[in-house]
Amino acid sequence: MKTKLTALAVTTALVAPAAIAEEMTIVSWGGAYSKSQLKAYHEPYSEKTGVTILNDDSSAEAVAKLRAMDEAGNVTWDVVDVVAADAMRLCDEGLAMEIDADTQLAAAPDGTSASEDFGDLLVSECFIPQIVYSTTFGYRTDLVGDTAPTEICSVFDLDAYPGKRSLEKRPINNMEWALLCDGVAKDDVYDVLATPEGQDQALAKLDTIKDSVIWWSAGADTPQLLADGEVIMGSTYNGRLFSVIEEQKQPVAMLWDAQVFDLDGWIIPAGLSDERKARALDYIMFATDTQRLADQAKYISYGPARKSSAPLVGQHAELGIDMAPHMPTDPENAKNTFLYNYEFWADYRDDIDAKFQAWLAK
Amino acid sequence: MTDTSTQSGPMLAADGTPLKKSLARALRLQKMRALALIAPLLIFVLVSFVIPIGSMLFRSVENGSVAETLPLTVAELQNWDATSGELPDEALYAAFTTDMVAAIEAKKHTRLGSRLNYEHTGMSSLFRKSGRQIKKLDPAADAPFKDKIIDIDKKWGDVETWQVIKTHSVKYTNGYFLNAIDMQRTVEGAKAQPEDKQILIKLFQRTLFMSMVITVSCILLGYPVAWLLANLPARTANVLMILVLLPFWTSLLVRTSAWKVMLQQQGVINEVLVWLGIVADDARLVMINNQLGTIIAMTHILLPFMILPMYSVMQTIKPTYLRAAKSMGATNWTAFWRVYFPLSVPGIGAGSILVFILSIGYYITPEIVGGTKGVFISNRIAYHISSSLNWGLAAALGTILLAVVLVLYWAYDKIVGIDNVKLG
Amino acid sequence: MADTESNDAFVEFDRVQKSYDGEILVVKDLNLTMPRGEFLTMLGPSGSGKTTCLMMLAGFETATHGDIRLGGTSINNIPPHKRGIGMVFQNYALFPHMTIAENLSFPLEVRKMGKSDREAKIKRALDMVEMGAFGGRRPAQLSGGQQQRIALARALVFEPELVLMDEPLGALDKQLREKMQFEITNLAHNLGITTVYVTHDQTEALTMSDRVAVFDDGRIQQLDPPDTLYEEPQNSFVAQFIGENNTLEGVVKEINNGLALVELDDGELIDCKPVHESVKPGARTRVSIRPERVEYNKDRIQEGAHTLKAVVKEFIYMGDIFRTRLSVAGNDEFIIKTRNAPDVERLTPGQQIEVGWLPEDCRALDA
């Protein structure tokens, strides 16, 4: 009897931690974005596997926190949602593990390999892209006068569009737009920006509107500033603008011209135990397959990163409107787009940021 | 011999042991018990305060990554005259290849690239891209390497690339501190950063100046409130005290955002002013996203830290002092200025130190309402911690901030005297 | 009102009333005149209104009704700093952030006095209280007694005609207090200043004052020189409050030849001097007899003295005197004090004796 009891106790002791371990921490951005992931990925995955998913809205500080965790030797995150630039940085720092798309991700339904399906968007060995989002402008339809802006350089045109505009408090994107509107050809932008003269040229262009700019640092700022009428136009992520326009019905419209494509996706922290690594890979394989990526677009207006997902994008889950026209990748919206150059910014970020901050403080 | 020592030596206890020793033994248990009582606090302070600060100080000079990742190269670089303008010789390229192959194996080369990119633009991609090629070389078989390496990326044929590596190969560096004061470490020694990159000294100055303005406005606004608190009947004072403490009970972010709603151009204050006709609709006041916004919001947030010490000091000032002064012929103003005010100075001192030190390190509020001219040095520290990951520079900036606070504290002690600081 | 009076009335309270809350009068009807140079003590239990009176005089409280005059002019509307009244506070109120010399200099500076004048006056004032060497110290470095002297010097340094003292010796130990009582009285008399002194310590009041005003319930119960106050209390409160007192209760039977016949509650009849106006035939009365006026040695009981039986309850040897507690006419707390002389009998508890006193030492007061 006694031995039986002990045996039982031992079994429970062995089983219990395993049961507790059937959970994983997924880090993301919070808000509507996390909600779309919950609906499209987490809920179906938990249902399928029984794994409990814990959410942590720390993506904004993910790089610093991962580095701190790595130094402390205790990484508590299993899967982390980051922008591509952060993913590259994490990869460079050795904080994210490399993932081989073809062997560790699902192929497209028609058999196309994952690496081909994602194509150019696999910008780092450690990064599995999930969505394409863009940083673009929204404007107040009632505050811009009779002719609505149609091109990016309206942002720099204080005569035609007097009033405040909001820009992100960092050089990335702003420097490119400034050069584009200062007569630099799209293909030459990064070559020009690599030179000190080019950097000065971009800052000089920004200088022309400096007094009319409110600088933002959180994605929610521009939508709020637009809603309050504090600015007449402002840059932010296209998904934020979608929610201002379609969900909150504010008098705001999109200016898709020269939208800057960027990627957001998953990384798995380096140094996980085999068990946790296997679970994280299993989750990523599930969450980045063709159908799942298309499902996310039902909840938020970001384009799926797989080519094979695009035809599957349907209607918004609650509003019932077609999502395709709201995608940054929609041909109508993507007539003039700009692809964010990761390599360039990985090199020039420290240098240009210092110059940009010095310019801001002037 | 013992006899003489008994007479001329120390006092002895009844059993012949020196009295001091005997006393120490008697007190030891007591001391141990006292130590055990404060041990939790001591450990807490050590873990949460001393160790982090120590590690910050260490990080601001620590620079092991170059020498650890490229040990042979660094040794070889000692033989190379960086100012000669000549490229290093084959031996160095061979050492570099060996180091890199090992580093790529350990996936450490890109990390080194990010580290050196802080000092010299382009190092990040140079290491990342070259890594893919150098990986294929065999250090034992593929010599000579000089041309092959330069072939992989022509930057390896730049003297400047090697100068950067050599300059930053020391194990402990003053480079972060130089960066923190808008200078840089070069082969020819410390040099000023190019003018268009100089920002940090300006931010230090602005931080100190703004903190002083905030401290002064806290004194001006807080003094009358503290006086009222100390002199009103208890019940009214309690209500007022709750109003003073109310800001403490709401989140910092909420308070700051509330100021945004109040101060922005389409905000409450401007709307009211326009409605009253005091301000024209097209000339709304700009009260946020600038220094004024930062001063207003931070004064509000830090005001309780000024009022509370002032209040507790004022509470101890007996009303008879004022009466005594008046009975001797002083007017209300003289009695206040010559008697009450000097007695309340310790409270002002304590409040000012608190507010000043807190505001010097403030980050969220300037970030949200500061615009371009209202941001503090801590915003740059936060940027280097979370975005650029240049923790060494962040640590150096933090260390300087700490030193500034200590110097000010020392100056305050010299001028006013730290005994004159009372929290109550 | 009365110009002739104001000539020797330097300080004058004329029908002064004071209420803090509009419901209760703290000072009910105060009339008091003080000639120049007098040392007057306001004595009373706490809450009797004495401090309020002092504060009204200093100008820190305003009278709700009535007039306060100084040197003949009403000072009701003069702010405290223009009244020119020196004041010593209970806890001295020396400014802790100033040295002793600076403390003393303060009233002179606000009077815009020149530096050399100030220094001379400060020196004189410090010498006067024998603290000449302490000018550079801070108040916290002085003992209580020394602080007391400085407070006194500070109140006097600008040579006010009137000095108010609010329980100035309350914080000192007994020995020091007695020494300071003596010094303060001497100073006040030598300098010829008018002094109003507030205390709840009756010994202090009796030893220092020219006149004592006994306060109770917002009124002056009696205003007299110390000896009169002690020996001829006008009512029961004063009799009880000043010195030790024995009380016997009874009813007035008749009044004859200036003596009242009182029937005590246990039936004994005694003769007393009728003092209070309420002492009339048929009225209840309290009879007051001072302990030292009661004798039990048969040889010492004077002729014409009244005698009663008593039982010794307790006999306490106190050195210079014997203090005996007796049971007399139903009062178990009847105290007598006898000087320790060779021929005095020492009593033992339980002993039956006879005690006696002269009818004029026995005062019939209000019930």
Task: List the keywords.
heterotrimer; B: 424 residues; mainly alpha; MetI-like fold; 3 domains; two-stranded antiparallel sheet; 68% helix; 2% strand; disordered N terminus; C: 367 residues; alpha+beta; Rossmann fold; OB fold (Dihydrolipoamide Acetyltransferase, E2P); 2 domains; five-stranded mixed β-barrel; 9 helices; 19 strands; 24% helix
Structure write-up:
- The complex is a heterotrimer of chains A (362), B (424) and C (367).
- Chain A is built from 14 helices and ten strands.
- Chain A is α/β, with parallel strands linked by helices and 362 residues long.
- In chain A, strands 1, 2, 3, 4, 5, 6, 7, 8, 9 and 10 form a ten-stranded mixed sheet that branches.
- In chain A, strand 1, helix 2 (31-49) and strand 2 (52-56) form a beta-alpha-beta unit.
- In chain A, helix 2 runs antiparallel to helix 13 (290-296) and helix 7 packs across helix 9.
- The longest helix of chain B has 41 residues, at 19-59.
- Chain B starts with a helix and ends in a 9-residue tail after the last helix.
- In chain B, 38% of the residues are buried.
- Chain C folds into two domains: 3-236, 3-Layer(aba) Sandwich (Rossmann fold), CATH 3.40.50.300; 244-365, Beta Barrel (OB fold (Dihydrolipoamide Acetyltransferase, E2P)).
- Chains in contact: A-B, B-C.
- Chains A and B meet through helix 3, helix 4 and helix 14 of A and helix 6, helix 7, helix 11 and helix 19 of B.
Please state the overall shape of chain A, judged from the principal axes of the Cα atoms.
globular
* Class from secondary-structure proportions of chain A: alpha/beta
Based on CA atoms alone, the radius of gyration of chain A comes out at 23 Å
> What structural class is derived from the secondary structure elements of chain B?
mainly alpha
Query: Which stretches of chain A are low in confidence, meaning pLDDT under 50 for 5 or more residues running?
Result: 1-20
CATH superfamily of the largest domain in chain A: Periplasmic binding protein-like II
| Cα separation of the termini of chain A | 82 Å
- Which stretches of chain B are low in confidence, meaning pLDDT under 50 for 5 or more residues running? 1-6
Spatial order of strands in the largest sheet of chain B: 1-2
In percent terms, what proportion of residues of chain A is strand?
15-25%
Which CATH C-level class of the largest domain in chain B is it? Mainly Alpha
Taken from the alpha-carbon principal axes, the silhouette of chain B is flat
Mean pLDDT value of chain A:
90
Give the helix proportion of chain A (percent range).
Answer: 40-55%
Number of strands of chain A: 10
Compute the number of structural domains of chain B. Answer: 3
Sheet having the most strands of chain B? 2 strands, antiparallel
The appropriate CATH architecture of the largest domain in chain A is 3-Layer(aba) Sandwich
